[in-house]
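Q: I have 367 residues here and want to know how they pack in 3D. Can you give me a structure?
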Amino acid sequence: MISYPPPKFEEQKSEIMQRYQILYDDHAVSAKSFADSVALALDTPFVMVALTNRYRTWYHCAHGLGAYSADDLQTYFARMHLSQSRFEVADIREEEFFLNHTDGLKMPKFQSLAGVPLTDPNGKRFGTLCIGDRKTRQLSETELNILSSFGKLISNDICVKSAARYAIRDLIELEHEKCDLFELATIDPLTKALNRRAFMRFSERELARFKRDNGRLSTLMLDIDHFKQVNDVHGHATGDKVLSKMVAIASNVLRQEDLIGRLGGEEFAIVLVDSDAMSAAKVADRIRQAIKQVKFPSEAGPFNVSVSIGVAEPLFNEASINDSLERADAALYNAKRNGRDRVEIAAENVSPHGHAVTAGVSRNLPN
């Protein structure tokens, strides 16, 4: 079922991010607990997860290396990726490869190193879990097996988080497409009001709710006075700006649950939820006054426009919102005949204690 108000992409995106607790790309996922556990289990002062470029920007896992540059560490430990299997260097002084590649890098003085590959389920290598010590050290087979087990845990963690990030990205893209499709299907591209089809659909839904809850509902018909002259004198581009501004002004007066739609040309309709005709007339007059105060620039000079508005309430025996809109339209034409720039309530909806809003002034309406 299509819902109203329309979904807003940023709100939907925020909800997805919160629901799955996945951070934006410019925030790193911290897996420090893994590194701390490795350091504790193997009694080692340094732990580093060295990763390829695809992962290192968002996954951080290290222990004892906070005083050193992450870039320097990744540059140095990237050499460990050359090993296709578990490795151990008990005394780094005996391995020239590890001694001669630290120029310009600020690094701890390692005396021993060990590491295990990090791979995806298909065996593709994307990093290395490394441990280092300030003293020479020969790891036991049990310690190497523990290191390998941690390597599998961290590999799985990275793969799951990476898959989640892609899944969330796909969800966000789908949500964006859904919002775009909603707008294409329901929104008038010029004014951003509901198009005729969507307005009628949502209005019928409000009519059904009005009958079910024995509530209140009002319909308004709006028309810009002498709009043809606006187009003839100031041009259609300026006329389009007038239409868009009118909808923006009306939307600022209305509540989120109210509906505004463009039925055609300069004719617009509004459905006010939980409002009787007298309350709706006051809202209509606020819209009328706000629009009248706006000056529109043009090459022919600044100008103002006015609107005429008709108001009606649906009746419980009416099968469609069209009936109420037709009576509001009849009230609109009464406003036109009575001088324009005014609000008229349909005769069927004028209470014994209230009159239509005429000449822009509410007469004998309850406060």
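Q: Anything worth noting?
A: Residues 190 and 244 are 7 Å apart (CA to CA). The chain has two domains: 9-169, 196-349.
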